[in-house]
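Let us practice reading a record.
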Amino acid sequence: MSEDQRNPSAHIALCEKFLKVATYLIPQGHLSSSTLWQWDITQNIFVENNRISSIIDWRDCWIGPRFLQARHPQLVQYSGEMMLDLPKDFETLTNKEEEARIWSQVEKTLVLLTYETHSKDLSALLEGIERVPQKQDRRDIVDMAGGTWEGSLIPLRQCLVRVAR
């Protein structure tokens, strides 16, 4: 554990930096509208006669800007390098693990791009969120800002530096 990690002054200084940029992290307009969010709603919603009859487990519920809450479904989440085509030497690969890794990378790329293409046509809101510059860094900063004591100061510092640049 670094010396800064145990130093309350380091946490306070980082929080002050966060507060200076916080108002710039959320895009203005309809993306900043407050929205009720429950992380695991699909497991806690009850439907009767095609109507929502109840919602349970409000423990992880919060209200926040749409921008922070819109996410790709877990099925299509992929943050690796995009690869649409197999490498020219793919047919000659003898390493089965490398072959499987490449197939997986191409598959994940295609699933993500297909989702983004079709959701763009279906939802102007999602399309607007996808076009926000530094979208993931902005979200990460907000997510990390409250957890430096439990985790580490370094990831939040890194995100703040990336957004400042």
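A brief commentary: Residues 135 and 164 are 13 Å apart (CA to CA).
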